[in-house]
Amino acid sequence: MIQNYADFCRELLAAGFSIASGGNDEGVFGLLPYSWDNEPPDSLMRWHTGDPEHDLWEWRMRVLDERNDIAYSKVFFRKAGYITREWYPYFLAARRKGLTFDETYADGVISHEAKRIYEALREGNPVPLHALKQLAGFGKEDKSEFGRGLVELQMRLFITLCGRQQKMSQRGEEYGWSSTVFCTTEQFWGDDVFDQAAKISADEADKAITERVYQLNPNADAKKIKKCICGGSI
């Protein structure tokens, strides 16, 4: 039973992946058993308390700050989820099918808005969300387009969250709320994960992930599993 951050990491590494929405496994699989509004009184786990050991919301940043074997981003059903280093190659093989970003865009699969965001990330360092919007040339009136492109790139495993960062004043002082930071998945994982993905066919990935889901949740919905593998509604 998960009671703290260490328990969560152990169980997640054993499972391989998990939908992050507390209490809603989307008919597939989720490690977090309840949401912020139905926390059992006998559990130490709580949402949005700021306690790094027991706040389920804090764990999503801790895995990015402290580990190199767990990714967290909007990867399932346009919602957040976790994928471990062991299983990321299978999802890469299933969703990207060995294609580069340029090849995928040339096939007409990627939107122009997503391309603008990706171009702002592909050659440089990780970029916080507030700066990424400006760097990609989106204004206040483009909030919806920017948001859709950002989720699209996460779902297709071209970019991922890699931490958080506060805004900096002109005097170099931090201020305001922390902003999530994004980078390309290549920057996040390095060559090893992509070398492994290149050895797995899309069909092999589909079969392996399906089998794993049924091991984790024998009652999983077959149609939802398929959507989980391909990303759901991108």
Q: With helices defined by DSSP (H or I, 4 residues minimum), what is the helix count?
A: 11
* Number of domain modules: 2
Uncertain segments = none
Order of the strands making up the biggest sheet: 1-3-2
In short:
By secondary structure, the protein is α+β, with helices and mostly antiparallel strands. It has two domains: 122 residues, no CATH class; 99 residues, Orthogonal Bundle (Arc Repressor Mutant, subunit A). It is 44% helix and 17% strand.
Describe the protein's architecture and organization.
By secondary structure, the protein is of the alpha+beta class. The protein folds into two domains: 1-89 and 202-234, no CATH class; 99-197, Winged helix-like DNA-binding domain superfamily/Winged helix DNA-binding domain (Arc Repressor Mutant, subunit A). The chain is built from eleven helices and six strands. The strands form two sheets. Strands 1-3-2 form a three-stranded antiparallel beta sheet. Strands 4-6-5 form a three-stranded antiparallel beta sheet. Helix 3 packs across helix 10. It is globular. The two termini are 33 Å apart.
Features:
Arc Repressor Mutant, subunit A; 11 helices; 44% helix; alpha+beta; three-stranded antiparallel sheet
What's the arrangement of secondary structure elements?
Layout: H1 5-15, E1 17-19, H2 56-66, E2 70-76, E3 79-84, H3 88-95, H4 101-106, H5 112-122, E4 127-128, H6 129-135, H7 143-155, E5 159-168, E6 174-184, H8 185-189, H9 191-197, H10 202-216, H11 222-230
Antiparallel strand pairs: 1-3, 2-3, 4-6, 5-6
